[in-house]
């Protein structure tokens, strides 16, 4: 987007090294952040490719522990000083912030919803009996099964994994009738046109932090963190902080069947309130604990975190803990 400043224009500062995974989605996300970082620092940014365990493992994500498999190699490179900043999908980032690293920025969020890609342009409610829907996410399976039951639809969720292209390929090849993916990933890859339905959060709540990016640097890089804070979007930060605090208070990881979404509600003129919704369920969708709270927009991330903890406590009081023991199918 922006021309890389010449060494003279950037005061001869060396390029910032931005660590990224090699998948098409990771490269697209890193490219977006690199543009923002060039703009606020005036420095050149170079992408450094890092291979993570999540990229090489053939196992189902939920079986290898989910939380953090995409993240740890990037973090180790940051701590070793091999890169200056790293970009993660926020929903893949464990809720505990490790010592030595700073979550310097959460840029403006993309559409947080999940998207259905079905054969023949079908919407979810139009899927014929016996349809097989691929998703590696217990959260999606639980909510899709519950939604199907409420519609009287006979569908089956099938665990799959792989990158976005691989998963869409299951539909194109006819092996599956549909797959469900994050809309944000499809948008960033220029493939949102292939979605046959954007799933309303009233039926499928996204993963906490879905659609948002996390820009991390070493805690010791104080001046860099201060510059990166300029690409932070405070509204996104408040919303995802509430969602992630809810997840943390449920003591669930990214492979748990937990959905959460904080939306800012407006009167057409200005944002007036924030609504936080959370859901936990069994994989088969027979039991869901789903709660919502609406109130003034939290004045700070720490107030947003309080809200997440309060809603989590209410969910636990309604039996949420008993629904989270399940792992992958
Ligand atoms: N778990 C993989 C992952 N991590 C982030 C995204 C999409 C981008 C986002 O949610 O921000 C995806 C793919 C998907 O769920 O379809």
Automatic annotation (TrEMBL):
Organism: Streptomyces iranensis
GO terms of biological process kind: protoporphyrinogen IX biosynthetic process
Family: Belongs to the HMBS family.
Keywords: Porphyrin biosynthesis, Transferase
GO molecular function, one term: hydroxymethylbilane synthase activity
The UniProt record lists the keyword Transferase: yes
EC number: 2.5.1.61
All copies of domain Porphobilinogen deaminase N-terminal, residue ranges: 16-220
This protein's record includes keyword Transferase: yes
Gene3D superfamilies linked: Periplasmic binding protein-like II, Porphobilinogen deaminase, C-terminal domain
Modified residues (S-(dipyrrolylmethanemethyl)cysteine): 254
Note: The porphobilinogen subunits are added to the dipyrromethane group.
Entry function: Tetrapolymerization of the monopyrrole PBG into the hydroxymethylbilane pre-uroporphyrinogen in several discrete steps.
Record protein name field: Porphobilinogen deaminase
């Amino acid at each position: 987007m922006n021309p890389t400043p010449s060494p003279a224009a950037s005061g001869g500062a060396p390029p910032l090294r931005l660590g990224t995974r090699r998948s098409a989605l990771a490269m697209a996300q890193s490219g977006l952040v690199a543009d923002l970082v060039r703009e606020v620092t005036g420095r050149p940014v170079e992408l450094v490719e890092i291979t993570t365990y999540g990229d090489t493992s053939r196992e189902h994500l939920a079986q290898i522990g989910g939380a953090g498999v995409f993240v740890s190699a990037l973090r180790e490179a940051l701590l070793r000083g091999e890169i200056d900043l790293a970009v993660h999908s926020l929903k893949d980032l464990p809720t505990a912030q490790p010592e030595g690293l700073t979550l310097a920025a959460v840029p403006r969020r993309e559409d947080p919803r999940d998207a259905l890609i079905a054969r023949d342009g079908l919407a979810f409610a139009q899927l014929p009996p016996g349809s097989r829907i691929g998703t590696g996410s217990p959260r999606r399976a639980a909510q899709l099964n519950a939604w199907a039951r409420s519609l009287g639809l006979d569908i089956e969720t099938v665990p799959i994994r792989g990158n976005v292209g691989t998963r869409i390929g299951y539909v194109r090849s006819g092996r599956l009738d549909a797959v469900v993916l994050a809309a944000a990933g499809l948008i960033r890859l220029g493939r949102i046109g292939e979605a046959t339905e954007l799933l309303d959060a009233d039926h499928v709540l996204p993963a906490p932090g879905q659609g948002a990016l996390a820009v991390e640097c070493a805690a010791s890089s104080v001046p860099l963190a201060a510059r990166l804070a300029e690409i932070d979007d405070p509204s996104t930060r408040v919303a995802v902080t509430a969602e992630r605090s809810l997840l943390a208070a449920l003591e669930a990881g990214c492979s748990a069947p937990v959905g959460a979404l904080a939306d800012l509600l407006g009167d057409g003129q200005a944002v007036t309130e924030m609504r936080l919704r959370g859901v936990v369920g069994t994989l088969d969708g027979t039991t869901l604990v789903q709660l919502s709270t609406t109130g003034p927009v939290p004045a700070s991330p720490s107030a947003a975190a309080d809200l997440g903890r309060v809603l989590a406590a209410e969910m636990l009081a309604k039996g949420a803990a008993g629904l989270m023991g399940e792992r992958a199918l």
